Amino acid sequence: MQRGFPRPASFHDERLRHASVGYLFDVISNGKGTMYSFDDKVSAEDRWAIIGYIRALQLSQNATLADIPADERSKLP
Q1: How far apart are the first and last CA of the chain?
Q2: Residue 44 in contact with residue 36, Cβ under 8 Å?
Q3: Helix or strand run (H / E) with residue 72
Q4: Does the reported pTM lie above 0.85?
């Protein structure tokens, strides 16, 4: 028998990779499902920084060779 909170979605899920930054900001600010609101706990500036970090992680896991500038590609082994 499992207890506790349901497992949250991965930020690498297709749906969240294509979610707008406005959607992510709203969820962080107001919560969703069992996630609490962080509007009064995390400043708006920090919420945007969190979204930037999420996007960087998403890009790092889904990047292709074409995403690397040509001059940088030549430096790869």
Answers
A1: 49
A2: no
A3: helix 70-73
A4: no
